[in-house]
Amino acid sequence: MAEHGTEKMLEAAKAFQIEGTFKSSGLYGNGHINSTYAMIWEQNGVERRYILQRVNTDIFKDPVSLMKNIEGVTEFLREEIIKHDGDPDRETLTLIPAKDGKKYYQDSLGNYWRVYKFIENATCYNLVEKPEDFYQSGKAFGHFQRLLAQYPAEELSETIPNFHNTPVRFETFKKAVEEDVCGRAASVKEEIQFVLDRENELGVAMEMQKEGRLPLRVTHNDTKLNNIMIDDATGQALCIIDLDTIMPGFSIFDYGDSIRFGANTAEEDEPDVSKVSLSLPLFEIYTKGFLEGCGGRLTEEEINMLPMGAKLMTMECGIRFLTDYLQGDVYFRTLRENHNLDRTRTQFGLVADMEKKWQEMKAIVEKYK
Predict the structure, then answer these.
(1) Residue 230: enclosing H or E segment and its boundaries?
(2) Where are the beta strands (DSSP E) in 235-315?
(3) DSSP H or E stretch at residue 15
(4) Helix or strand holding residue 48 (H, E)
(5) Residues 200-241: pLDDT tens digits?
(6) In this structure, are residues 247 and 157 in contact, taking their beta carbons and an 8 Å threshold?
(7) Distance separating alpha carbons of residues 306 and 312, to the nearest angstrom
C-alpha cells in the first residue's frame, strides 16, 4: 500500500487505544512529508474514521521531541477551547494514545506513528479561491496566537533547528556564493547584490528578541491555507492542523509567511517577474483577520513589526532558493532548468514591490491595531 507496506501500517494501526474492529484504511490527503492514512473502525455498529500518520524521520530527526511538542500544545489548546465554550474535539487535533500510554508508537522497523481523531464535515483547501478564504486563514492563525499566548514557548523543541533564523540562512548563502560549486555565481550577480544590499535588515527580529522587544511565541511555521480546516456548514475556520513545525518563534514570521505566499499576485515560481506584486487588498484582508483573531494578545511592537515580518520571510525564502541554485539544486525539488532561479526572482520581486508599498502596508496595519 505504501513504501513501508500494509503489514507495518496494520501493526501500527492496532497498537493504539482504539475501540472496536479495524475495517480498512487508505492513503489520504496530498501531504508531501509524512505518510497519511484514513482508517475506518467499527464501534458498536457505527463506522468511525481516524488519521494514521508515519512521521518522516528524514526531515524530523527527533520524533520523540516533536511528539512532545504536539502533545503539549494540543492539550493546552483543549483547555483553552473549553474555557471559551468551544468544541475541543473539532477545534484542535486530538491524539489517540498507544497501548503503552505514549502518544506515538515505534514499530519493529523503528518507524514512528501517531493517530488523530478524524474531524468530520470539514475541508482543507489548497488555493485561495476568494478573499474570504484568506480572511478566514488570517483569523485562524491569529486565534491560534491568542489561544497559545500563555504557553511557555521556551519549553518547545526546535523540530528543524534554525528554520527561521534569517542570519544563519544568510551565512549559508554567503558560503554558497564563496564556494560557487556549480560556477553559477557570475550569472546571478544581480540577485546576489540584492541580498547583500539588505544585509542590515536580516537580523533585526533576532536583535529585537535579544533586547526583550520581541517576545518568543508558539509559532506554527507553515501558515498556508491548506493547514486550516474549514467547517463545511459554516465556512468558518475551525482547526489548525499539521503541527510538526510547532516551535518557539516570532508571531511576525507566521504572519509574514502567510503574506509571502497568499498576497502575491503571481505563483511562487512564476518565470515572468513583471506579474509579481503585493496585492494590497489581500494584504489588508489578511491583516484584518489576523489581528481580529489575535484578540489584543500581541504587543504594540509586534504589531508595528508585521510589515517587516512579511518582508523578512519573503527575503529568507528567496535567499534559500538562491542558495540552493548556487549549490546545484540539492534541496528543493525542481521541475525545469533554472526553476530555483525563477523562485528566487519571484521572491525578490515581491520584496521590491513591498518596499514601494511600505507606507501603505504600515497604514493598513495601523488601521486594524
Answers:
(1) strand 228-231
(2) 237-240, 247-249
(3) none
(4) strand 46-54
(5) 999 999 999 999 999 999 999 999 888 999 999 998 999 999
(6) yes
(7) 10
Could you give the C-alpha distances from 73 to 147, 170, 345, in angstroms and in order?
10, 31, 37
- Integer Cα distance of 172 and 294 in angstroms: 34
3-state DSSP helix/strand/coil percent for the chain, to nearest 5?
50, 15, 35
Which H, E and C letters describe 173-224, residue by residue?
Answer: HHHHHHHCCCCCHHHHHHHHHHHHCCHHHHCHHHHHHHCCCCCCEEECCCCC
Q: Residue 321: which residues within 8 A CB-CB, separation 6 or more?
A: 332, 340, 341, 343, 344, 347
Instruction: Identify the three-state secondary structure at position 35.
Output: strand
Distance CA 243, CA 75 (A): 13
Q: Give CA–CA dist 341/103, Å, rounded.
A: 42
Distance CA(27)–CA(353), nearest Å, equals 41
Please name which of 209, 224, 228 lies closest in space to residue 317, comparing C-alpha atoms: 224
Q: State the residue for C-alpha cell 474570504.
A: 132
CB neighbours of 223 closer than 8 A, spacing ≥ 6? Answer: 137, 141, 254, 255, 257, 258, 261
Segment 320-333, tens digit of pLDDT: 999 999 999 998 88
pLDDT of residue 5: 63
pLDDT given at position 272? 96
Q: What is the DSSP string of 82-106?
A: HHTT--HHHHS--BPPBTTS-SSEE
pTM surpassing 0.90?
yes
For 13-36, the pLDDT digits (tens) are 999 999 999 999 888 877 667 889
